[in-house]
Design goal:
It is a single chain. The chain has about 375 residues and is α/β, with parallel strands linked by helices. The protein has 2 domains: about 200 residues, Rossmann fold (3-Layer(aba) Sandwich), CATH 3.40.50.2000; about 170 residues, Glycogen Phosphorylase B (Rossmann fold), CATH 3.40.50.2000. The chain has 14 helices and 13 strands. The protein has a 7-stranded parallel beta sheet, sandwiched between helices. It has a 6-stranded parallel beta sheet with strand order 10-9-8-11-12-13, with helices on both faces. α3 links the parallel β4 and β5. It is globular and about 65 Å long.
């Protein structure tokens, strides 16, 4: 199959969630024999057909691809859709967030003009996205909240949830290194990976670290961040920050944690609820580190409290208590970690993501054969691979 994949970033080497998603999915599509056509900002090895990011380049992709797979990220769908509609090729949108997420970037800007402008822009962009969505054949959503947004707001009838995953052969407990963090021996290592985006709830993590600095000096916070040179906070004495770690080395860091944090703010700006599907959650689970996660959205559905992780309502004292429990109960921590990795091996992995995506692409290319359409549905697919 010739697949035209349109996105507005380079995925290689992976630097964050979106690049990891693209990298892992496309790598497997190539491995399975598909030919990828994309724009030339992409450097992923294996993509041989690259075109300039121009009107002519996009049209050439439309000409050579059997179908178009567009990552709806920002407003790239505008330029692509307007140049591809006349080609009458099947169009699949990959939806990762509603446009309401743009509002959060303006929340700390005091200017009333900027606030007004952001809401006018949002209304206009939502109008354009909804109009373009009327020409979309299928949408792939990373969580059920986005599937609801796709069906009810964008009116894309054929919308499906394909939950993200991890590469369990890359992220695994055997990669643990006791001295990798360069901190005093015997410290209990609480790990967090991410950037200081408004939804990451870093203020909560900072508050927890401040508390432990006073109450338990044996607990150390390891932060994996891309831009520590621009920190909006003063690092504490029980913190160590790492930045720009190569993707191939990240699994060693994940596996060397004693507990990992997957904490988020509620998406108050979105009428569709919490729409995030954090890839780091699955990487944590694959790495053999017990996870403490916010009980919201897809995260709260994947983590079963006291079975494959611990859920929290984001109360500082609750999280402090859960970290303390895991520190003092190594058997509980071990059991949780084993259960979590087992779920990744069985279901939450990139091979399954690629397989579900392939099924949808094949159906989109041959609309007369819809017998496998129900298989894409999350519950049905889980039951099939388990049997």
């Amino acid at each position: 199959m010739n697949i035209g994949i349109i996105h507005n970033f380079n995925s290689y080497p992976p630097q964050n969630g979106r690049s990891s998603h693209f990298y892992n999915l496309v790598l497997r599509l190539i491995k399975n024999g598909h030919i990828i056509h994309s724009l030339d900002q992409e450097k992923l090895p294996g993509i041989k057909n690259l075109y300039p990011n121009t009107k002519e380049g996009i049209i050439e992709i439309c000409n050579k691809a059997d179908l178009l797979y567009i990552r709806v990220d920002g407003n790239i769908e505008k330029q692509v859709m307007l140049r591809s509609l006349f080609k009458k090729k099947p169009i699949i949108w990959e939806l990762n967030a509603p446009l309401e997420e743009e509002i959060v970037w303006w929340q700390n800007i005091p200017s009333r003009f900027n606030h007004l402008r952001s809401r006018i822009d949002l209304r206009y962009n939502n109008f354009i996205r909804k109009r373009l969505a009327s020409f979309v054949d299928y949408s792939i959503c990373t969580c059920s909240e986005l599937q609801k947004y796709s069906k009810e707001f964008l009116n894309i009838k054929n919308s499906f949830t394909i939950t993200m995953g991890a590469d369990y052969e890359l992220f695994k407990p055997e990669l643990r290194k006791e001295d990798i963090f360069g901190i005093p021996e015997g410290k209990y290592k609480v790990f967090w990976a991410g950037d200081i985006f408004p939804w990451q709830n870093f203020d909560l993590i900072y508050e927890i670290a401040k508390n432990f600095l006073k109450t338990d000096p044996d607990i150390y916070f390891i932060l994996l961040m891309p831009k520590s040179n621009k920190l909006p906070f003063i690092p504490l004495n029980n913190m160590k920050i790492f930045e720009k770690i190569a993707y191939k080395d990240i699994p060693n860091y994940f596996a060397s944690a004693d507990v990992s944090l997957c904490l988020y703010c509620d998406s108050y700006w979105s009428p569709w609820g919490f729409t995030r599907s954090p890839i780091k959650l699955f990487d944590y689970m694959a790495s053999g580190s017990p996870v403490i996660a916010s009980d919201m959205g897809q995260v709260g559905r994947i983590i079963k409290d006291n079975k494959n992780g611990l859920l929290t309502n984001n109360d500082v004292n609750d999280i402090i208590n859960k970290i303390t429990i895991l520190k003092g109960n190594k058997q509980l921590a071990k059991n949780i970690a084993i259960n979590a990795r087992d779920e990744v091996v069985k279901y939450y992995n990139w091979d399954r993501v690629a397989k579900q995506t392939e099924i949808l692409l094949e159906i989109a290319l041959n609309k007369t054969n819809n017998r496998n359409l129900d298989l894409i549905a999350e519950n049905n697919f889980r039951e099939t691979i388990s049997s």
